[in-house]
Write a structure and sequence with these properties.
The complex is a heterodimer. By secondary structure, chain A is mostly beta strands. In chain A, 0% of the residues lie in helices and 50% in strands. In chain B, strands 1, 3, 4, 7, 8 and 9 form a 6-stranded mixed β-sheet that branches. In chain B, strands 2-6-5 form a 3-stranded antiparallel β-sheet, with no helix packed on it. By secondary structure, chain B is mainly beta. Classes of the chains: A mainly beta, B mainly beta. Chains A and B meet through strand 5 and strand 10 of A and strand 3, strand 7 and strand 8 of B.
Amino acid sequence: EVQLVESGGGLVQPGRSLRLSCAASGFTFDDYAMHWVRQAPGKGLEWVSGISWNSGSIGYADSVKGRFTISRDNAKKSLYLQMNSLRPEDTALYFCAKSRWLAGSHFDYWGQGTLVTVSS
Amino acid sequence: QSALTQPPSASGSPGQSVTISCIGTSSDVGNYDYVSWYQQHPGEAPKLMIYDVSKRPSGVPDRFSGSKSGNTASLTVSGLQAEDEADYYCSSYAGSNNRVFGGGTKLTVL
């Protein structure tokens, strides 16, 4: 059974940093691209970032470019999101999701999300 | 990276059909057959319902179908059932390793 379990969320002050993790199981992790998608309270989904199976290709939404860094460790079957210079508008539930390819394919499984709250 | 445009709400009675539109541009929906649709019930993670415009994953009822014409994709739910009441989001590949979502449509079964 495919499982994606996010962790690392919490309450953080504006301007500070936070690192999210996503632990994967139930599939061959290094066969898939991975993504972070967020959902602000009561709002819609927003793609944040994606990374190819070998970390060779990466994409970011304009809203986080230069502040967030995505990475993965295939040996640990884990995905990460380093979030710096956090802003109140980054407050959201952050989901990790997998896709077959970075360029094009759909998100076939999602985790349950980890909540990030940016507030003073 | 502008969001795709979806109607905020849609509704139908049990047994009826409803269609949700997803309007993009020639840089995303109109340029790639990588449109997907997700269903999200309150407090749950999104679930893939349609991918590559019109393909259904295993386990998704054939009441759900997708199509695309130009810059507009559509999701049709036929034979509405109470459990179909949820939020629905479209998504498209937008080139250069980017993705874009629609704003979401709240489907109400009357």
